[in-house]
Amino acid sequence: MGKKTTIYDIAKRLNTTASTVSRALNNSPKISKKTKDLVLETANKMNYQQNKLALALKSGKSNNVGVIVPRIDSNFFASIIKGIEENLYAHGYRVIICQTQNNQNIEVEIINTLLKAQVDGILMSISSINLDTKNSFNRILQKQIPLIFFDRKANIKDVSSVTINDFEAGYMATKHLINQGCKKIAHLSGNILLDIFNNRFLGYKKALEEEGIEFNKAYVLKIRSTVKDGQNAAKQLLKLRNPPNGIFSSSDYAALGAIQEIKANGIKIPGDIKVVGFANEPFTKFMELSISTIDQSPVEMGKIAANVFLQQSNNSENTKIEKNVVLAPKLIIRKSSLKHPNE
Amino acid sequence: MGKKTTIYDIAKRLNTTASTVSRALNNSPKISKKTKDLVLETANKMNYQQNKLALALKSGKSNNVGVIVPRIDSNFFASIIKGIEENLYAHGYRVIICQTQNNQNIEVEIINTLLKAQVDGILMSISSINLDTKNSFNRILQKQIPLIFFDRKANIKDVSSVTINDFEAGYMATKHLINQGCKKIAHLSGNILLDIFNNRFLGYKKALEEEGIEFNKAYVLKIRSTVKDGQNAAKQLLKLRNPPNGIFSSSDYAALGAIQEIKANGIKIPGDIKVVGFANEPFTKFMELSISTIDQSPVEMGKIAANVFLQQSNNSENTKIEKNVVLAPKLIIRKSSLKHPNE
DNA sequence: ATTTATCTTGCAAACATTTTTAAAACCTAT
DNA sequence: ATAGGTTTTAAAAATGTTTGCAAGATAAAT
């Protein structure tokens, strides 16, 4: 009873061959209605389930898609995955999740593993960009497997991507702070080697420039996306002879840490210092002092990334057509950055 | 150049056969060092990558494990998946993610799909329990595929599970409220057909009983895990002739909604009403009025569920040995439930 | 030099499908 | 009744591996 029933089993019972059964199950026009019904009935009776593995081997399509993210337990990435999964499931694809933990060795290894598993496509948010990873990307492309970047992209020819306009986001956030009366604006930045962080930084700079505010190198600190790093950054900023009165953080978590630290020093938010974060993590909305932030529409981003994949894998011609979708960021204004929070 | 190289290609180039190449690559002792080196070298040169699909078909092991959750974009489930993924990846398994969206039809369909995909195991948190799903579970068991429940389990013979002690959690939370001076304690409950919610409810009742507090049916409301439902529930509770002064919510989101609603009515938390939530979602910690809650150690839960799977799939004997791991919940006391929040 | 033992390799089957090609079976019209 | 055509089924090849069995080659021992 533990054995799986195959089309051979069905064939044997009906005194026919596997090919007939296969065609009958696939509703081929070459099979008479009578045998079709018979096959279908016995298949049901025998509890037959198609073995997708065999089909995959035969057809060369596994119907599996690999999704690679730095980590899954952040609302941002979880939401993207939600979008991808929902869209691809409806098209018969299964989604294989892998986390790099921001480790480039793991990243390269994961790509290899997915290739061996014969995935039909790879959707990923890169953790690092260097010679090894670039090599991996090329191996994917050589095998003609669709590769799509989301959020954190590398600039590689023929590779599509779905991102938000991070430059615009940085610009909007900074401009908003200026509009609320800030003249001395700090920026908590991520690793500038990644496009997303670099672009946010450039947007920040542009906004300052436009308003004739001089760029102050001491106001820009590199942080990881943690509460702790935000606290440390705030400490450092408050120690300055001329501390900022506005902070644009590339991370909601760091923004939170900064806010906690600043408050602990008896300094008022948004009164004395105004803060804008990034990513619209759920907690930013729920806090008493709700945090202004940038929304990146992660679920939509995931859905679009999935769509781009579907397009590319349908049109084998299109595999080489690069398509770069850039979503508009949304500035979400909450209390942490308002000049007059009670109005 | 787009063609994949197979062991046949390597064999042809070396004027030998596929079997030799296979053995060489697998470091079989039956192959001389000389040819091994030769094969390995040319395999590298030709950019060979093993086709896991073929191997899977041959061996009957796909090295894929299906993970089914109601949704992925909640910190709780994302964290569990993180634990599962990290543990299983290290053992050569890939994790296929599926969401049921709490829909039982989808749930049944997903199980079917995973079975066809020949997964080596299914780890799931059930969405619903009824005849159809039970049928699906039986089909999994019939195929001798390890099935492990986490958090939301069904009581099925021979099926292992990893849960927390929800009874204890409900008891702890309620007892804590009582200790903080509450005598009139409401409970926001989920669907009581699911064990987790029923057990939390029973724990709640037990604590009341132990303290000689009479059970009041009007204090128990059924909610979904949303802010909105929490708000509505609070509205309803406040309308009572004798409103509660403590709330134990089965959901952090609902607890948040209740808190918002209560505050909006000018009622003090924790002064007038004390609140405890459930799940330790990140925001509960970050809020100005931090929310007391129950931590379920989701990452650990995922890791343990993965371990149970690994044990069962190694010992084919053990497949039928039910193992029910019950983790201890942790009551995390924060401001929302404290008699004297400033001490 | 021949047998025996040991080491190394090749052949073919197996995994569960689909698909191409070929062959029956059936029917219709002459 | 038979040629021609159409419909239906059967046989075989193909997908990329692993593996049991047999055989070939080499080395050792008589």
From TrEMBL, chains A, B:
Signal peptide: none
Entry keyword Nucleus: no
Protein name stated in the entry: Transcriptional regulator, LacI family
Source organism of this protein record: Algibacter pectinivorans
Keyword Flavoprotein: no
A matching Pfam family: Peripla_BP_1
Boundaries of every HTH lacI-type domain copy: 5-59
InterPro entries named among the record's database cross-references: HTH_LacI, Lambda_DNA-bd_dom_sf, Peripla_BP/Lac1_sug-bd_dom, Peripla_BP_I
GO molecular function: DNA-binding transcription factor activity; transcription cis-regulatory region binding
UniProt xrefs under SUPFAM superfamilies: lambda repressor-like DNA-binding domains (SSF47413), Periplasmic binding protein-like I (SSF53822)
Keyword set, alphabetical order: DNA-binding, Transcription, Transcription regulation
